[in-house]
Amino acid sequence: MNARWRAALVLAAPLALYSAAAAAAAPAPDSVQLWTGVFVGAQTPKVRFDVDVQSRFREDGVSHTFLIRPIVAWRPTPTTQLGAGYAYIAPSPFEASSEQRAVAQALWTPTFEDGRVSVVFRARGEVRFRDDDPGFRGRLLARALVRPFAERGAGLLVWDEFFVAPSKTTYQPKFFDQNRVFVGATGDVGKHWRLEGGYLLQALVREPTWTLNHAFALFLVANY
Hints:
The protein is mostly beta strands and 224 residues long. It is built from 1 helix and 13 strands.
């Protein structure tokens, strides 16, 4: 089995779990949203620093969620990272509870086909502090970027992220919390910057219902 098929199977596995669980849950009204973000990363041969700032707007155009997340990582090899960081999440209207997270993660970032196919596998653990009810959540991400003409900087991007929780809290269910799927395109806008845009589907579990959030996602990404 070649690298492309292995990446496709990893991306498809959470979708199968989502479909099986969704069949047993009651649906809630869908939501249309806009997700935006700026992601900046810089690295040396052994250390990498990343920070992302995001705003996610709901369909009323006013309510949104703000997130900032810095992470520092050690790079034991050119394709692996072990990192830790902090996240702050503030909803609007600001009367709602904010959230703080301690974050730890491991990444594997191989490339194939002379750089035309880039893959990211990420395992992230979060300790969430909210409503005086701390909880843990795990996240598994598989991401593939295919650039048929790498020298032109444009490509197709697909990723899937699966969220699980070992215990129930006031703000997350036990086991399956949510799943996010993104399909879109990316293109360079400078030496270090690129734009990523496309469709993002978030399947959000809030027992006993499911909510499907359909979002247009636009991200500005920098790597130094």
